[in-house]
Amino acid sequence: MTGASRDGAPRIVSPRVKICCIGSITEAALAIAHGASALGLVSHMPSGPGVVDEVRIAEIIATVPPPIATFLLTSATDAAAIIAQQCHMRPTTLQLVDHLRVGVHRALRDALPGITLVQVVHVEDEESVDYALAVAPNVDALLLDSGRLNAPVKELGGTGRTHDWSLSRRIRDHAGTPIFLAGGLRAENVAEAIRTVEPFGLDLCTGVRTNGSLDARRLEEFMNAVREA
Asked: pLDDT for 111-162, tens place per residue?
């Protein structure tokens, strides 16, 4: 991201980092200690890593201090089901990983004032760009990921794959809303990702894990790479 210094000269603002697939209170504390601005907690998904039962998600969220944001990843597409999840687990943010019908975002806004809505866009082609620009006015941020909605079993995140960042840059330039970049990010490629897309935030799961567990060494390497970028 770029901003302006007091003398008006452009300056680089380090993107916020969201660590996803948090599976325990210990992992939440580790991510926060290394500088995460937000934590992602994965409820039921058709595929992918990091799924945690809703009772444990609620327990983890209850331990997270402000101003750290808690993102509940939900694959539900019905407003009533999403509202019930929020009321049960109490995240600060709903990360909507599937496409929603017309009117669902408005229903969530009306029922959950003060709760941040982040729509995931799985960046595959020009249609993904069109969808992102159409939905952007209805949400607080977009999260650009590398899932596949039309796969035999839907892939809604946690793939470990990158996507075409030039498409993400186009979305970033025209959406008029903050952009989180996700999909295959790791210490080795995050500098290029930041230069190419200039996102508001970065989101990752597998890039800081070893054998499924949050790895303090890989987490530190990633955070250092973000700062150095």
From this structure: 999 999 999 999 999 999 999 999 999 999 999 999 999 999 999 999 999 9
Instruction: In whole angstroms, give the CA distance from residue 153 to residue 224.
Output: 36
pLDDT tens digit string along 53-63?
A: 999 999 999 99
* Nearest residue to 208 (alpha-carbon basis) of 38, 31, 59: 31
β-strands 213-214, 2-4 pairing: unpaired
Angstrom distance (rounded) from CA 94 to CA 76: 11
Pairing of strands 116-122, 141-145: parallel
Q: What is the CA radius of gyration of the chain?
A: 17
As a whole number of angstroms, the distance between CA 68 and CA 61 comes to: 10
Distance separating alpha carbons of residues 177 and 203, to the nearest angstrom: 16
Distance between CA 144 and CA 122 in Å, rounded? 6
79 pLDDT more than 50: yes
Q: Which domains are delineated in the chain?
A: 15-228 (3.20.20.70)
Using alpha carbons, list the distances in angstroms from residue 115 to 14, 33, 109, 110, 220.
Answer: 24, 25, 8, 10, 30
DSSP string for 96-163: E-S---TTHHHHHHHHSTT-EEEEEEE--SHHHHHHHHHHGGGSSEEEEE--BTTSSS-B-S------
Q: Within its chain, how far is the Cα of 124 from the centroid? A: 17
> How are beta strands 201-204 and 179-182 bridged, if at all?
parallel
